[in-house]
Amino acid sequence: MPPRPGLEDARLLLTAAESLIALALARAREITAHGDEIDAHQVLAERVAYAATEGRAARELVAAVTGHATPSAGERPSAATELTAEEAERRQGLWWYLLLCGLLLLAAETLIANNLSRKERFL
Fold first, then answer.
1. Which of 3, 52, 63, 96 is the one with CA 20 to 30 A from 29?
2. Would the pTM of this model clear 0.90, i.e. be above it?
3. 81 contact partners, CB below 8 Å, separation of at least 6
4. How many whole angstroms from its chain centre is CA 62?
5. Among 58-62, 77-81, 115-119, whose mean pLDDT is lowest?
6. What is the DSSP-derived secondary structure letter of residue 67?
7. 73 CB-near residues (< 8 Å, 6+ apart)
8. Residue 49: what pLDDT?
């Protein structure tokens, strides 16, 4: 049985796809004279745009799985985009407080609505 593809395989494919998309975009710019003749090449423009969108979706999927995006060709990862484990945990810890506040508001609203409905006389 062949080995199952993993995250490293996805990153490798993403890098290859981004390289191909960059080449396709460059060639499409040449063919359309940087967009001036795009009406004459609508099918090309649509297909290249679709490929670029799919590449972006793949990059976002890898980012969602890993917690941070893989830098695309020509980009350098900045220190601001890299999260340490402590920073990620701190950001996630904030959600517990927000969730607790939401539950407390829900409980308070339930109690107030219950008291108001008891005072109300129904037919």
1. 63
2. no
3. 68, 69
4. 9
5. 77-81
6. S
7. 15, 18, 19, 22
8. 94
Q: For a pLDDT cut of 90, what percent of the chain falls above it?
A: 46
The amino acid present at 4, given as its one-letter code, is: R
Cα–Cα dist 30/83, whole Å: 39
Contact residues for 14 (Cβ-Cβ < 8 A; gap 6+): 55, 58, 59, 62, 70
Burial class (CB in 10 A: 0-12, 13-18, 19+), 15: middle
CA pair distance 66, 59, nearest whole angstrom: 11
Report the pLDDT value the prediction gives residue 110, as an integer from 0 to 100: 94
Residue indicated by tokens 């508001």: 105
Q: What is the DSSP string of 20-36?
A: HHHHHHHHHHHHTTTTT
Q: Are 49 and 35 in contact (CB under 8 A)?
A: no
**What token pair was written down for 86?**
């402590």
> In terms of pLDDT, which residue wins out, 71 or 44?
44
- 31 CB contacts (<8 Å, ≥6 apart)? 37, 41, 44
